[in-house]
TrEMBL record:
Homodimer. It comes from Arcticibacter tournemirensis. Pyrophosphatase that catalyzes the hydrolysis of nucleoside triphosphates to their monophosphate derivatives, with a high preference for the non-canonical purine nucleotides XTP (xanthosine triphosphate), dITP (deoxyinosine triphosphate) and ITP. Seems to function as a house-cleaning enzyme that removes non-canonical purine nucleotides from the nucleotide pool, thus preventing their incorporation into DNA/RNA and avoiding chromosomal lesions. This is dITP/XTP pyrophosphatase. One of its GO terms (molecular function) is ribonucleoside triphosphate phosphatase activity.
Length: 190
């Protein structure tokens, strides 16, 4: 079974493919010849995930899913949230991460969470799958694995960041891991 994963983010693809294994062959936007700048103008992860999957289903007539995700920091009123990919005004993840660290200087409440919402469109119907992982924002970055804000996010119950975990360890507890596992069980049932 082949499913199109509506993403341009190679790290997301790697994480999801590690979970789906060879049960599903994932094709990326590039592989189906979609180089469009897919609109992402929603105010929630759900709206954005839905926008991405609907765009692809409508324009390319395929079954597909999209992941919208990000980091919510309590002391920053939930920012960067849906703006996670471009928090500093660029897609440079080092700049984005440094901006969070800077804004968090001197803050005692370091609570944060990653959220992931997947929108699946299959046979013309839409289904959502979600995951959340609670944690805290570290005082400095550490680790080189993963992507995005991983070097500054310490999941609850651990004393290392996502970037200090190997991919399987992160997938076992992450927001994306939870959402993808729910997607897989659904697909296995239909
Ligand atoms: P696509 O829309 O093409 O899928 P994107 O990177 O633009 O890729 P989003 O709009 O969903 O995706 O933004 C997600 C951002 O949130 C991502 O670029 C990271 O900065 C952050 N993020 C999401 N999941 C993450 C994770 O597991 N680890 C670290 N940062 C993550």
């Amino acid at each position: 079974r082949t499913l199109i994963f509506a993403t341009n983010n190679k790290h997301k693809l790697e994480e999801v493919q590690a979970l789906t294994g060879n049960r599903f062959k994932l094709k990326t936007l590039e592989e189906i010849g979609c180089f469009d700048d897919i609109p992402e103008t929603g105010h929630t992860f759900r709206e954005n995930a839905s926008q991405k999957s609907h765009y692809l289903a409508a324009n390319f007539k395929v079954d597909c899913f999209a992941d919208d995700s990000g980091l919510e920091v309590d002391a920053l009123n939930g920012d960067p949230g849906v703006y996670s990919a471009r928090y500093s005004g660029t897609r440079d993840s080092e700049k984005n991460l440094q901006l969070v660290l800077e804004k968090m200087k001197g803050k005692e409440d370091r609570k944060a969470r990653f959220r992931c919402v997947i929108s699946l469109i299959i046979n013309g119907k839409e289904y959502f799958f979600e995951g959340t992982v609670e944690g805290t924002i570290a005082h400095e970055k550490s680790g080189i694995d993963g992507f995005g804000y991983d070097p500054i996010f310490t999941p609850e119950g651990y004393s290392k960041t996502f970037a200090e975990m190997d991919p399987d360890e992160k997938n076992a507890i992450s927001h994306r891991g939870q959402a993808v596992n729910a997607l897989i069980s659904f697909l296995n049932k239909i």
